[in-house]
Fold these 2 entries.
Entry 1:
Amino acid sequence: MGDCHFATARLTVRLGAIAANYRHFVALCPGVEVAAAVKADAYGLGAAGVTPTLAAAGCSTFFVARLEEGIALRPLRPDARIFLLDGVRQGTETAVIAHRLIPALNSLAEVSLWSAAAASRGETLDCAVHFDTGMNRLGLPAYEQPVLAAQGKHRLRHLNVVLWMSHLACAEDSESPMNALQRDRFRELLAQLPPACASLCASAGALLGREYHFDLVRPGIGLYGGNPSICLPNPFSVVAVLTGKILQVRRVDSGESVGYGATFRATRPTVLATVGLGYADGLMRVIGNKGRGAITGVSAPIVGRVSMDLATLDVTNVPASALQVGADVEFLGDTISLEEFASLAGTASYEVLTSLGHRLPRHYEPAA
Ligand SMILES: *Cc1c(COP(=O)(O)O)cnc(C)c1O
């Protein structure tokens, strides 16, 4: 959204930090192509807002989940390679081809479908082939893999495989034995297949080291400032800054309650600030009486329930000079990390980002 300096609540997206995070992956993975996962509207930050920055930093390959996401991205990045993680289904072939999207084929049935689409047009169509090496979610299951290995020449004769891919289930935990197991299964598969570019890693996998990188990594969360690893300090810069403005400040006596359900009761004379940010903006209701905001870096607990448009903070310890109506309160940013917010909300950084409300104006802070 354009001019939103007056906005009560807003999401500031630091484009300079996205570029720096992209470059961090490039430095971590020398000689390896760094693509970007921009599914779910770039994890809620806005694909139209962030893809020009990624492209300027050197990214020319993007991954989306849904066909609609690929169609929306195509005019924004006319020259980019766009992979569709959902693959292709009966009836979607024409749209996939028209928008020059590359499906990740997830089963032998999808290989046949895409191959038939190619044959009926007398063309060779690009594709990725996704192998399931232990996640048991999407991709050719183990029992279909030998068929492709043995009959690949025939089954893929109308197709141009530009990427063999798989996905790690436990990469956030560098100690998990699943990582090496899946990597080795992927290597064994590649040895039986015609040579093509190969990709195993999302953000967390990229942190596991060279033997996981293959030819292309496809990070998402790290680009957007989340910590992909549960073992390491976060090497990525803060991208998403969620703020709301103070709408009202009041004093209450000891014994007064706050908000719906009167779930908080003051035990001392208390200064309260009511802030224009609520669960409709992504400040999840579950962090009522648990989370915090920060005013000029000073922490203030959220008291009472978060409502749709508002949250109330105990600002007794915040210097009065910082408590002006219209002052910004941070709920995510340099003081409050995605990981802190996610842990209080009982979820992951990914869901915090994708839960940011539609109505929040996104302000894209240009790279310096
Ligand atoms: C979402 C996704 C990614 C990006 O994952 P992050 O953990 O956000 O880096 C990469 N590959 C696949 C298959 C995905 O679904």
Entry 2:
Amino acid sequence: MDNKLQTVRDNYARISAEIGEAALKSGRKPENITFMAVTKTVDPVLVNCAIDCGISLLGENRVQEYESKKDAYRPGVPVDFIGALQSNKVKYIIGSVRLIHSVDRMSLAKEIDRIAGKQELVQDILVEVNIGREETKSGVLPEALPALLAELDALPHVHVCGLMTIPPPCSDTTYLQAMQELFLQAGEIPGADMRILSMGMSDDYTKAIACGSNLVRIGSALFGARVCR
Ligand SMILES: *Cc1c(COP(=O)(O)O)cnc(C)c1O
């Protein structure tokens, strides 16, 4: 375990430096880019090590895994939900997570609105975009985004504060740039609050930052390759 802890510390230092460098290169401040630690399948001991290093945001994919691990995490660090979300699981995470990154359909948003309303709170969400138009992936298609944003605007207990994407694995920046353009366009809709572009994972975070991302979701580059279960 000591070895693994040291690896997380080394990875954290390296990735933070790279994020800072990428931010400066694109004319932004390093502190304006959020480095999220993605915790799926990761031992809470390692997650807490990342928190000790300075991680200030966790990303969870699975409701059940989150439920079983959250009490083992150091308190005080916000958690975002980033995985595919079924409407019947919404009730377990509202009031507990800071931001839901993966809203891509009105039926899901309505359920979030309903549960958040019951708890008298407004749930911040991102709209997930399927920028690569991949059939296997969730997310709204780019051309359907404006209509979905307009519909979401009518929900009193849901607040959209940006966009999220998982682009196709790709060595160039075509999809990242397309997403940046879509994000900027969405920001021009009157009343839109496009503050967060959640884009970039272990393989592409520096490129994503170059294309305007201000929140990178990093798992394996920080914690090591995931063991499948
Ligand atoms: C697993 C996951 C990540 C992190 O992936 P890595 O390639 O391990 O960094 C980021 N975002 C989402 C939505 C994920 O499911």
